[in-house]
Write a structure and sequence with these properties.
By secondary structure, the chain is an alpha/beta fold. The protein is 44% helix and 18% strand. The strands form four sheets. An eight-stranded parallel β-barrel has the order 3-4-5-6-7-8-9-11, surrounded by five helices. Strands 13-14-15-16-17 form a five-stranded mixed sheet, sandwiched between helices. The radius of gyration is 24 Å and the shape is globular. It binds iron/sulfur cluster. The site of iron/sulfur cluster has 13 residues, from loops.
């Protein structure tokens, strides 16, 4: 009964073999790593460098780029140089489908510039030569001392393997549900490919596995199974999660449950950006998921009540939003100037019902005046009421107090 536990928290982490991707440790007890993927044309060096830097500055600790054709493979070393010139060392992962073996063989500078290669076992090269093409990529990874992610995907599952398992299932005395067989094919696809890679000579500490599905319940089942059957480092992600709040909720539900069970060494939240929307949102959501669950701290948390009929004006929402935005914008600089600033808790509350109580739990908190209350906003620092703000400058004054608190 969890109510009888003195300490609330996740299950112990599933033990996995640690993999170094560039200078970032994945698995083996390392902090859960946030990663993301660009959506620029990789052949566009400048555009890709700019987006990688935006993602890295937001907190993406690994960045994946698609390497889909010769122009993209040729651009990869220039992207690496462009990042280096701007002082960015984030590890880069190349995403390969169909012709990865060819691109990596013909563009050795690309193979060298990347830190990890992602292979999809469902589409490694051409059907009857798949094994040799898979072997080619693995051998190039071994030669260049690079990590590999074997990433099975529900949408591009190895059809031969699926057909074989479906036939076996149809002839079985106790046939399983077709969806369960598909899940089994996902897990087997990842595990058999990993075993084959080890046979070729790629050590376990160079391999990360993933088996992405777009349905929350299937994803949970697939990853639980994958984790129970192996100790490879695990990349978690709900594929094709979707747009806006649907994508965020589905990803948080699926990944949250798995993380709580100790499963997952690196995560990507795959969101479809709104037209013209910012790609960095997926990094922000991944960080917030890990932080709200207590796995890591990235940026100060702003606790805010939802507001209700007791809030008198938009001042409350404006203050909460402006504090949140201010912190996000300043974080890249604060991180180096104020070590530990990410542990700060700020509370912005709408009235006296929960305001003073919540504010006292924060490092610094404010309770704005609600309907019918005296137009005064008490501010609490480290649990003590230190000041009461009044009038139209409440927002500016509180912001200044937050900065003052951080500086001290
Ligand atoms: Fe409403 Fe006050 Fe609760 Fe905020 S703290 S939701 S304003 S009752």
């Amino acid at each position: 009964n969890p109510l009888q536990n003195d300490i609330a928290g996740p299950a112990p982490r599933h033990r996995t073999t640690q993999v170094m991707v560039g200078n970032v440790a994945v698995g083996g007890g390392a902090p859960i790593v946030v990663q993301s993927m660009t959506n620029t044309d990789t052949a566009d060096v400048q555009g890709t460098v700019d987006q990688i830097i935006r993602l890295a500055n937001t907190g993406s600790e690994l960045v994946r780029i698609t390497v889909d054709r010769e122009e993209a493979a040729a651009a990869v070393p220039h992207i690496r140089d462009g990042l280096r010139k701007r002082g960015v060392t984030v590890p880069l992962i190349g995403d390969f489908h169909y012709i990865g073996h060819k691109l990596l063989a013909e563009y050795p500078a690309c193979a060298e510039a990347l830190d990890k290669y992602r292979i999809n076992p469902g589409n490694v090269g051409f059907k009857d030569k798949r094994d040799s093409q898979f072997a080619d990529i693995v051998e190039i990874a071994i030669k260049n001392n690079k990590a590999v992610r074997i990433g099975a995907n529900w949408g591009s599952l190895d059809q031969e393997l699926l057909t074989k398992l479906m036939e076996e299932n149809a002839n079985s005395a106790t046939p399983r549900d077709a969806r369960a067989v598909t899940r089994e094919a996902m897990v087997q696809s990842a595990l058999l490919s990993a075993a084959r890679a080890e046979e070729i000579g790629l050590p376990k500490n160079k391999m990360v596995l993933s088996a992405k599905v777009s349905s929350v319940q299937d994803l949970i089942a697939v990853y639980q199974d994958l984790a129970s059957r192996s100790d490879y480092a695990i990349h978690l992600g709900l594929t094709e999660a979707g747009m806006g709040s649907k994508g965020i909720v589905a990803s948080a539900a699926a990944l949250g449950i798995l993380l709580q069970q100790g499963i997952g060494d690196t995560i990507r939240i795959s969101l479809t950006p709104e037209p013209g929307g910012d790609r960095t949102l997926e990094v922000q959501v991944a960080q917030e998921l890990l932080q709200t669950m207590g796995f890591r701290t990235f940026v100060p948390l702003v606790a805010a009540c939802p507001g209700c009929g007791r809030t008198t004006s938009t001042t409350f929402q404006e203050l909460a939003r402006s504090i949140q935005d201010f912190i996000r914008t300043e974080m890249p600089e604060w991180r180096s100037r104020y070590p530990g600033v990410e542990n700060l808790h700020v509370a912005v509350m709408g009235c006296i019902v929960n305001g003073p109580g919540e504010s006292k739990h924060a490092n610094i908190g404010i309770s704005l005046p609600g309907t019918g209350e005296t137009p005064a906003a008490p501010v609490f620092v480290d649990g003590q009421k230190v000041k009461t703000l009044r009038g139209p400058t409440i927002a500016t004054e509180f912001k200044a107090m937050v900065i003052d608190y951080i500086e001290k």
